Amino acid sequence: MAKDVIIACDFPGAAETLAFLDRFGTEKPFVKIGMELFYAVGPEIVRQIKARGHRIFLDLKLHDIPNTVKKAMRVLSGLDVDIVNLHAAGSRAMMAAALEGLTRPDGTRPLLIAVTQLTSTDQQALTEELLIEKPLEDVVLSYAHNAAQAGLDGVVCSPLEAGKVHAVCGESFLTVTPGVRFADAGKDDQKRIATPARARELGSDYIVVGRPITQAEDPVAAWQRCRKEFLG
Ligand code: C5P
Questions:
Q1: What is the C-alpha separation between 129 and 87, in angstroms, rounded?
Q2: φ, ψ for residue 180, nearest 5 deg
Q3: Cα separation of 174 and 165, whole Å?
Q4: Burial (CB count within 10 angstroms: exposed 0-12, middle 13-18, buried 19+), residue 221
Q5: Nearest residue CA, atom 5 of ligand 1?
Q6: In 3-state terms, what secondary structure has residue 57?
Q7: Under DSSP, is residue 199 helix (H, G, I), strand (E, B) or coil?
Q8: Is the C-beta atom of 36 inside 6 A of ligand 1?
Q9: Rounded CA gap, 180 and 156, in Å?
Q10: In a 3-state reduction of DSSP, which class is residue 210?
Q11: Helix locations, the chain, DSSP H
């Protein structure tokens, strides 16, 4: 897969999402459908957006016992999405079960990637709340290694960690990185952030960008700026 910008379509309903995508005319950006939209509208929104010709990253971040995740992935494999994900914290056994459930009878499947640590989590929360005493970066790299061992295609991580993930897991192991902000904008609730150009330098394969595009006065211009800065 080539590098690209994925727009996080964090909207409350189908009407807002489709009106937003209408603004792009014949352009078909890669879109991310997250929990808010999926829980509000259901699988139909995936089918509708796919029918319009978009590639889709279905970001539901599954995390449960292996058998439950396997069965849920079997359901998701019936949707024609390009990427799905889960939390690496669910263990290697859970990730391997997910992969099994996701694989269709003909052997095809969407790409499966794992969330290492959310980009809204910082060292303080990791240590004081999650009681994980290792440095954040070590945790991210260890979780990425587990995902690779389980046969997954990549991870969701901060752009700041992309290079090291590639060093540990290989160049073809995908790094999909949220936490991207333009140099002249605020951080919102993100903590471990980079600009699109910096994300490219750091080796991100895909950047996931939400509010800097969806809340922009001109979302199409913001998307184009983002692609230009990221793809060079
Ligand atoms: O608006 P913003 O650019 O912060 O959106 C980032 C998107 O990426 C959100 O949909 C968020 O749920 C998602 N995400 C994240 N950090 C992760 C995994 C997913 O921000 N580690």
A1: 18
A2: -110, 130
A3: 9
A4: exposed
A5: 210
A6: strand
A7: helix
A8: no
A9: 13
A10: coil
A11: 14-22, 35-41, 44-51, 66-76, 92-102, 123-128, 136-149, 159-169, 196-202, 211-214, 219-231
Give percent helix, percent strand, percent coil of the chain, each to the nearest 5.
45, 15, 40
**Quick check: 183 and 154 in contact, CB under 8 A?**
no
CA angle 227, 7, 96 (to 5 degrees): 110
pLDDT interval class at 100 (50, 70, 90): very high
Q: Where are the domains of the chain?
A: 4-231
Range 4-231 classified under CATH 3.20.20.70 = yes
pTM for the structure as a whole: 0.94
Whether 187 is catalytic: no
pLDDT tens column, 30-62: 999 999 999 999 999 999 999 999 999 999 999
Q: 3-class SS at 44?
A: helix
Report the nearest atom of ligand 1 relative to the CA of 157.
Answer: 21
